[in-house]
Amino acid sequence: MEFTKLPKTYEEQAEIWKSRGLIVKNEERTLHYLKNISYYRLSAYALPFQQTKDKFNDGTSFDDILNLYLFDRELRLIVFNAIERIEVAVRSIMIYQLSHKYGSHWQDNERIFSAPYNRRDTRTGEYYTINVFEEIQSIIRHTSREKHPETFIKHYNGTYTKPKNPPSWMCMEVFTLGQLSKLYNGLRHNDDKVNIANHFGLHFNVFKSWLHTLTYVRNICGHHGRLWNREIAIEPLWLKKPKLNWLDSKFDGSTNRTFYSICMMKYLLQTVNANHHIKQHLNELIAKYPSVPIQFMGIPSEEASKKIVDWQNEALWK
């Protein structure tokens, strides 16, 4: 089918929603947000208020849609802040553990990384090569050759002639969470993975899975994507044998929703920053937007009554 829809003016966009039953109390305010957020982006937040497609539930106003959008925006900021703390800690522990075992320039030691292997692209069917060591070296080379490198990289290159690359504690500072996740996954020896994961109270396979998921969630936040009722495409493993405070078994099975990812962050923050106020921030956010249906975040509810389970009294959140 050929796409034939034409672009609409802001006024026409507002009229479409009004024709579908949306209450617009302040036309000028509505047009302001359509101009500065966009109809398409806001339309994703309109869907929960349409039990029937293209027909708003009785009493739904533009403020309901806007509040949901603002809730999601502020949720992303809370999540992004938590992941930042975790990312810095993961980088620090990886550098410390591997430096003390393999030396300051362990990132240049090809023997501690898995050998290159081929992987099949599920979309195209073609095979491509995964070479973690070469990817690491490529990132470092790119950083060193930048027109305006980080000050510490510039200092090293201007002061030392060898080794060619700066030490790991400099190189790793420029790695993203996704690159750190790949590096961890590419370590050849499981005991190296175990030593790093133990610091966070996790089995190394669970830690690997969580890093992958948190990278995905961080990218959603970084690109201002919808998080509130997101189905997490990179589904993390369920933590079966926690060493720290965790969730009751009734929460099992909801690992592909946003709330489980937030629980992962809270678990890691017990080690990284026990005084982090993520629970307080969540409570304040929920209180600020009481009309937002938070169950779509993936917080379990009782089967019969649909009442949301009291997550705040779980050991993890107390």
Structural features:
single chain; mainly alpha; 12 helices; 2 strands
Total helices: the number is: 12
Structural class: mainly alpha
Written as H for each helix and E for each strand, in order along the chain, the element string is HHHHEEHHHHHHHH
Shape: globular
**DSSP strand content:** under 5%
What's the total number of strands? 2
State the gist of this model:
With 318 residues, the chain is an all-alpha fold. 50% of the residues lie in helices and 3% in strands. The longest helix has 41 residues, at 62-102.
3D architecture notes:
This protein has 12 helices and 2 strands. By secondary structure, it is mainly alpha-helical. It has helices at residues 10-19, 27-36, 39-46, 62-102, 132-144, 151-159, 168-171, 177-185, 190-198, 204-222, 258-272, 278-288; strands at residues 117-120, 127-130. The protein has 2 domains: 10-60, no CATH class; 71-313, no CATH class. α3 (39-46) crosses α4, α4 (62-102) crosses α11 and α8 runs antiparallel to α10 (204-222). Strands 1-2 form a two-stranded antiparallel ribbon.
